[in-house]
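step: validate -> pass
step: tokenize input -> pass
step: predict -> running
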Amino acid sequence: MFPTLTLMVLFLTCSAQEDPEALSCPEYQESFDGSCYEFVGLQRSFLSAQRWCERGGGHLAFILNDETQQFLQKHLDPEKDWWLGLAPAAPNLTLDSAATEGSLAWLEGSYVSYSNWLNMPDAQAACGHILRHSGFQWEAAENCSQELNSICQFGMYS
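step: predict -> pass
step: emit ->
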């Protein structure tokens, strides 16, 4: 009777560890909804921030719903700007047609269905960030070489 019980406990323990929803994040990251988030206080350009996230196996954060927006707000300094994973939609278009497209999408290609824009992005928008002193609203930027803090997302969609 005891060997069967031991095997059963061992099986349940191993099964729980393989559960993808039970994501274990490093101590310097915060876990939410199947992803780990790192709030990077080093200021970098958009591309440099994305490369930083990619080196760790992630990407600049996607905010796909209000729950994620609310979670991030609890961890962000409202006195700082924070890069998000927003870039021009349809990157396979030519520069001319991309400029007339005028919309930003998440880096993996999905369109922005949930948003928290301060002002809607215009045709020159090239990247997006959370704007300081705005109540955590998003701003589209033409200048992606400005140096801001960033939010890296790991796990889901990485």
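step: describe -> The chain is about 25% helix and 25% strand.
step: cleanup -> pass
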